[in-house]
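Hi U.,

Before I forget, here's the chain from the pilot set. I'm dumping it here mostly so it's searchable later in email.
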Amino acid sequence: MTITSILLAAALTADFSTETGKIRPELHSSGFGPTICSQTAQDLADVKSMGYAFARTHDWALINPNERVVDYFHIFPLMHLDAKDPKNYVFGPTDYLLKRTREEAGLDVFYRLGTSIEHSGKKIHFNALIPDDFEKVAEIFAGTVRHYNCGWANGHQWNIKYWEIWNEPEGIENMWCPKEGTEGLSKEQLAAKRAECRAQFVKFFVTVLKRLKGEFGDSIKVGGPALCGFNEVWLKDILDACKAAGIAPDFISWHGYRDDPMGFCDEGDKGRKLLDGYGFTKCEMIVNEWHYFGYQDYNWTDMQRCSDPKVKQRIWSGPRSHNGIHSACFTLATLANLQRSKLSQAYYYGCRHTGSWGFKNELQEKYKVFYALKLFGDLVKKYPVMCASTSEGPYTTLAVKSADGAKKALLVVDYGGPKEKGSISIEGVEPDAKAMVTVLDYTHNLERVPVALKDGKIEVEKFDGNSAAGLIEFE
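Structure:
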């Protein structure tokens, strides 16, 4: 039987009689949440419909224009004042924003301590400067935790568990910036400056970690530093310093913008080996920014600055665009693979409500990635048990079933495979079971189509040469 636009060229298998683990909702989390202003009821409904577990607060000052939220210099705007005095803090806007996130969107909060990114160039910075006084900033961070978890400064008892120290400190031109900037430095001088900044950050990280764990202990988890990528040089420097100081981070974190949906599994294996080698066996690993990036089709400069209409068309339109069907299938394949990884949480950097890192364009038209995220959110909600299935080449599968085993589903993702017919062998399902497939491809957005199970197999065929995905549900 041919199903419009579902897969595949390889013979895959799924066995619902063999359980392999539990679905972990935390691996389907968001880099954004609700905003304070200019958000419709439909926006909020769309955010909820994607079924996220957590929302990470990084860059929220950028998506809430003219609002002083989250970043430490907004919460404590006058650095010469006493950081132990609650009168010197401004929590109101952030309180409101986090309340919306928790109560209206139903998301737990992962709080990034520090600053949003600052794209002001190599010479001048205002917000992302390396702090003058590490101990004072650590005290401000402690006041922030105390406000949200202990009721301090007319605060809350929200039990926010995860607190992250800074973001992408390798970025000495936009995140951890020396006051003198980097303009005019030679290659050798720039390398020396990077090493100097790294050493400063390592000291800062340990200072904050000790301060927060000293007051709040195991009631919170503290870690970071949200590296641009899995960078062992940085991680080893941080872990060496933690070991020397006699304190362990609760988690390490990094980012990834890529086109390989298995990459985070591989990095998780490396990270686990690294951490265990230090004796930090309980330290979690978190990827808290990830998104498809089509390096074969465009680069960062093209995306941010290119005005060539042909280049912009390639980036923002068509099946291989930044948020098109190829991106959507990468997203689904990555989400499936994350469930089998050693990571404990993962945050899709998107779902700002409009724009390049959002789920719709300025005309309010939803991107293909929205439908991918919604499909996976529905899967997480309905099917908490993982079962055995195989993946091969461009094809990724994830077999799942309900807690009582009565309902079963198989996610099948073709990420750039050829246009050929293939089959999926199914075990652990009644021979005469009826099935429906929810289709996501270049022309379909989660339409449900009947599919036949014959002799323990489902035969499927792609409609076109683009990426495609389907959630096959057995009734």
